[in-house]
C-alpha cells in the first residue's frame, strides 16, 4: 500500500490516473495532459506501473496504458475505518442541525 500512496501523492500521476479511468490511452496522449517533458511523463508512468496501478501493452510502435484499479481496493479498505468515523460524526451533526431547526419552529 505504501507504493500506491506514494504514487498517488503526485498531482501529475493523479491526472494520468483520472484520464485512464475513462479508458486506455497511449503514452503520447497521456503526455499531452501534463506540462512537462515526455521523459518526466515516462517516469510518472513507471511509478504508476510499479505501484500496480496501470498496465501497459505494446500495439505496434505505441505503448497503450490502462488502469489497473485492484491496488486501490486495498487503500479503500484502509480508508473504510476513517470513513466510518466521519459518517458517525456527520450523522451526529445532521441530528443536531435537525434538532435546531425543530426548536426554531416551536
TrEMBL record:
Matches recorded under InterPro entries: ArsR-like_HTH (IPR011991), HTH_ArsR_DNA-bd_dom (IPR001845), HTH_MetalResp_TranReg (IPR051081), WH-like_DNA-bd_sf (IPR036388), WH_DNA-bd_sf (IPR036390)
Domain HTH arsR-type: 1-87
Source organism superkingdom: Bacteria
Keyword Glycoprotein appears in the UniProt entry: no
Record flagged with keyword Transcription: yes
Record-linked Pfam families: HTH_20 (PF12840)
Name the UniProt record assigns to this protein: DNA-binding transcriptional ArsR family regulator
Protein source organism: Conyzicola lurida
Amino acid at each position: 500500500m505504501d507504493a500506491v500512496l506514494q504514487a498517488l501523492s503526485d498531482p501529475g500521476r493523479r491526472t494520468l490516473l483520472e484520464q485512464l479511468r475513462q479508458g486506455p490511452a497511449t503514452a503520447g496522449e497521456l503526455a499531452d495532459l501534463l506540462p512537462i517533458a515526455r521523459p518526466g511523463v515516462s517516469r510518472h508512468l513507471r511509478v504508476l506501473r510499479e505501484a500496480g496501478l496501470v498496465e501497459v501493452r505494446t500495439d505496434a510502435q505505441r505503448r497503450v496504458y490502462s488502469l489497473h484499479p485492484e491496488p486501490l481496493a486495498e487503500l479503500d479498505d484502509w480508508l473504510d475505518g476513517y470513513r466510518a468515523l466521519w459518517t458517525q460524526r456527520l450523522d451526529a451533526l445532521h441530528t443536531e442541525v435537525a434538532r435546531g431547526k425543530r426548536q426554531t419552529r416551536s
